Amino acid sequence: MSATASPQSTPQPTLHDTATTAVARSLAQALIEDPFYLAVTVEAQADDAQRLEMLARYCELAIDEANAVGEVHYAGTDGAAIWVMPEAGAEAIAHHGRVRGTALKTLLGERGYANYNGICEAMAQHVPASLDDAWYLSILGVQPAARGRRLAHDLLQLTLGRADQAGATCFLETFNPLSLPFYRRLGFEAELHCVEPVTGSDYWLMARR
Q1: Alpha-carbon span 204 to 133, nearest angstrom
Q2: Domain-by-domain residue ranges, the chain?
Q3: Deepest in the core among 93, 145, 187, 203, taking most CB within 10 A?
Q4: What global pTM score does this model have?
Q5: 143: left (phi over 0), alpha (psi -120 to 50) or beta
Q6: Fold type of domain 17-208
Q7: What does the alpha-carbon distance between residue 163 and residue 134 come to, in Å, rounded to a whole number?
Q8: Tell me: the pLDDT tens digits for 66-118?
């Protein structure tokens, strides 16, 4: 899942592991009101601080997965763009997905993990076969304090430029209708407008071919 925020400074393509926790917290702050993330952190909804920490840990696991089967670009500790790439191979992607799933089962609790699986399964059914080899933007987020400086745009350009050279298609899913013009300016087109059954929320699948 992805969310947009406005940029702060020129993003850097690498980051020391010691700062991963800070980046994950920035991502959590950017994503915390998204319907998907509200649903998967349902076990902590009564405690905003606990929910933020749960979501930050969720983002750490997404970073770990992408470091193994994709790529991550960082804007200092203010945010990141997290991608999963088919170049890693189906077997590796499946393996690291299972590793992440095991960790999420413990992290999210019974209801949150059930929501996670239900949403992912429902959304997967709407992804066209033509996107099987596409590069997937899993998460894009920048903390609210860093908005207004083109940082999200710059983060995505790091991968989109490489996609252009490789002739690769990219795609994403977003629950935020306000993000649609942002993605369109980067060359994405809305291919599907769906309603996700677990949350009852609208979302859009967008592709950049």
Answers
A1: 19
A2: 17-208
A3: 203
A4: 0.89
A5: beta
A6: Aminopeptidase (3.40.630)
A7: 10
A8: 999 999 999 999 999 999 999 899 999 999 999 999 999 999 999 999 999 99
